[in-house]
Amino acid sequence: MTQAQNIFRAPDAELSVSPSAATFHSPLSSFGGGALPQRAQPKQLKPFNTQDIKILLLENVNQSGRDILTGQGYQVEFHKSSLPEDQLIEKIRDVHVIGIRSKTKLSEKVLREAKNLLVIGCFCIGTNQVDLEYAAHHGIAVFNSPFANSRSVAELVIAEIIALARQLGDRSNEMHRGTWNKVSNKCWEIRGKTLGIIGYGHIGSQLSVLAEAMGMSVIYYDVVNLMALGTARQVPKLEDLLREADFVTLHVPELPETKNMISATQLNQMKDGAYLINASRGTVVDIPALINAMRSGKIAGAALDVYPSEPRANGDYFINNLNGWEEDLRSLNNIILTPHIGGSTEEAQRAIGVEVGEALVRYINLGITLGSVNMPEVNMRSLTLEEPDHARIIYIHNNVPGVLRKVNEILGNHNVDKQISDSKGDLAYLMADVSDVQTSDLKEIQDALEALSCK
Ligand SMILES: NC(=O)C1=CN([C@@H]2O[C@H](COP(=O)(O)OP(=O)(O)OC[C@H]3O[C@@H](n4cnc5c(N)ncnc54)[C@H](O)[C@@H]3O)[C@@H](O)[C@H]2O)C=CC1
Ligand SMILES: O=C(O)C(=O)COP(=O)(O)O
Description:
It comes from Daldinia eschscholtzii. By secondary structure, the protein is of the alpha/beta class.
């Protein structure tokens, strides 16, 4: 069952903080006859101005994003790390907006408590940490930054290819311990070697261009048939890539299909003395199998930036049994271990802060869902200050026949200036600007929509 949400926005909500610029959030109400185990509790009907909006920012979201949100007058609470689940649940109950990065898990269990939550900003690429389906069906939009850190990840991987080929990590560690160990045995140029890219999306394709510029041959495997850049070549099967590549690098999302996609069988299919790089998600590589393959010499080196379990904050966590194999991993030669820093550059974080910060403001103030990963993308010309008795109505509902007719019967008592509706799967998003409407009318419209949603 889809939950319906109505949001009423006054014309100048984006600009003004005066009570006349009130925005209303109606109760969540059920719509349709299906069976959700839990019926969402109603949201409090509350006219608000921008200062009423409460935002919780976790995981050290960049200053650029914080500036955009505080610049709107919203109340912003900022934390450098993620929160333990019990504290997260406690805090999320109270906020309208949450901003996270890759660590904070917004599961159904957590979102069930988020009775006032309107929108989630993932200040990163991945959205696997959020239950997108649950959020959508409870009227909570989710935004991310689809490619602002792609270049940073691609550059890190280029650095790792050379570092692994030249055993740079080991030589550097030895020098730090005072040991001079000048060797050329099993150290290689990368020129003329084959890079196998698994997942040829934003990061994989950017990496392809950089690798070719350095004289590598590029092959890639992807579930989608994608245009090859430069002289790269798509191979039909993962196995083809594994058998041919000197360096294998993973750039796929975390999905049930990508869990342990590199395990003992796939490592065996790789060339003897090949290298493996994973800066995608920790679940994609079976790490105990990698440890075995490196101990046997089958795999000559690896770089890991991501792990199935990662610590919540900075500190000496990698000596503990977070995953159970940290000690074994740390004892291997020619393995570069980094703390999920693929996207951690000043450029990327600043750009992500701006992109997601602006998307949140557009959604909170204007209901615009452009770039949302779980809602239909809807945009409509904003109301202006010259339109004083107008309101913007957002109605998130089940995508079933007859809804628009019923909604328009309700809105028909006013003048509908403009209206747009779009759907994504079983979810639909309607935005309507109505004129000749007073604040008192909004409650009436809301009640009518609520009643409608109960049918
Ligand atoms: N280490 C870090 O700091 C960062 C890690 N990431 C991770 O990298 C991942 C990839 O990022 P993008 O390139 O931006 O994603 P993207 O969505 O642009 O590309 C992913 C590609 O993987 C392909 N794919 C999906 N399932 C596949 C499968 N089973 N087998 C082969 N190909 C498959 C897709 O068709 C797509 O072309 C993200 O999902 C995120 O988890 C992203 C940014 C930073
Ligand atoms: O963008 C992503 O998906 C990443 O993995 C980067 O995550 P982070 O923002 O560093 O927690």
